[in-house]
Each structure stands twice: as C-alpha cells, then as structure tokens.
Amino acid sequence: MVMMTLWRAANDDSISDCASFSTTRGAAEAYLSNPGFGGRTLYRAEVEIDAAKVLDLIDCDDAIERLCDVTGKAHPGAIDADEWAPRISYEIRDAGYEWVRVLESYPSETETWIFVGSNDPEMVEVEA
User: Fold this and answer.
1) Taking the CA of residue 74 as centre, how many other CA atoms within 13 Å lie in the half-sphere pointing to its CB?
2) How far is residue 61's CA from residue 92's CA, in Å, rounded to a whole number?
3) Contact 65, 80 (CB under 8 A)
4) Which domain holds residue 72?
5) Which pTM value belongs to this model?
6) CB–CB of 12/41 below 8 Å?
7) What is the domain count for the chain?
8) What is the largest CA-CA distance in the chain?
9) pLDDT tens track for 69-121
C-alpha cells in the first residue's frame, strides 16, 4: 500500500461513478475555472492505494488497447484514455481495479488518478 495526497476541483465532495484527481495542487487548481469540468472548490484527499488494484495506463504501450483488453469493450475510435476511462468506470471496477492512472490532456501531460472503486476517498476542502 502507498499513501498519496491527491487533489480535485469540484462543486461538492461527493463522487458518483468515478472521480479524477491530480497529483499536484496546481493541476487541480486549473480546473477551478475550466467550464464544464472541475468545480469552484478545491479538495485534498489522503489516500492509501493498493498497487495491485491500479490500472496504469501511463506505463503501457497503448492505453486504449489496454482498456479494451481489461474490459472487453471495442475500441472507441478517436478518444484518449483520460476521456474514455471515466465512461467505462463500471467495467474497469468489475475487472478488479480501484484506480486508473492516466496522462491528462488538460493540463497537458499531467498525471491523473481516476477513482473507480467502491469506497470513496474522503476529501477535505482547502483554500484555493
């Protein structure tokens, strides 16, 4: 198990199907004013991550193909892993994963952890 501090901009501290977290405060802050994404409040979460339950799409040759292999879904076409993983979060969870690690398109090339597990991380509001 590894302890990590992750960051998230959102309008509240609830998580519905999945949630994206940044590894840096600065990347999360970019979502405080990104219309349609993120939200007006900055949160921090101290999480304990089991490496065996992480689907790492950064350190693989083809992230989309890896998602297809894990979930049995057909290739989605012109979409990146950071966009597709949240849409198939239930299938990823059913495959035994709690977290998906991806490279984010905004802010460009930042590391994002997408929570797809069942025990939601506890988020604490922080001042932006």
Assistant:
1) 1
2) 18
3) no
4) 2-126
5) 0.91
6) yes
7) 1
8) 42
9) 999 999 998 889 999 999 999 999 999 999 999 998 888 888 999 999 988 89
* Cβ 98 vs Cβ 26: under 8 Å: no
What is the signed CA dihedral for 110, 86, 58, 30, rounded to 10 degrees? 0
Please calculate the CA angle 41-28-30 and round it to the nearest 5 degrees. Answer: 90
Residue found under tokens 């949630």: 19
Contact 31, 73 (CB under 8 A): no
CB atoms within 10 A of CB 53: 14
Question: Where do we find the tokens 């990823």?
Answer: 92
The pLDDT tens digits for 23-75 are: 999 999 999 988 778 889 999 999 999 999 999 999 889 999 999 999 999 99
3-state secondary structure the chain: CEEEEEEEEECCCCCCCCEEEECCHHHHHHHHHCCCCCCCEEEEEEEEECHHHEEECCCCCCHHHHHHHHHCCCCCCCCCHHHHHHHCHHHHHHCCCCEEEEEECCCCCEEEEEECCCCCCCEEEECC
Query: Which pair of structure tokens corresponds to residue 124?
Result: 């604490």
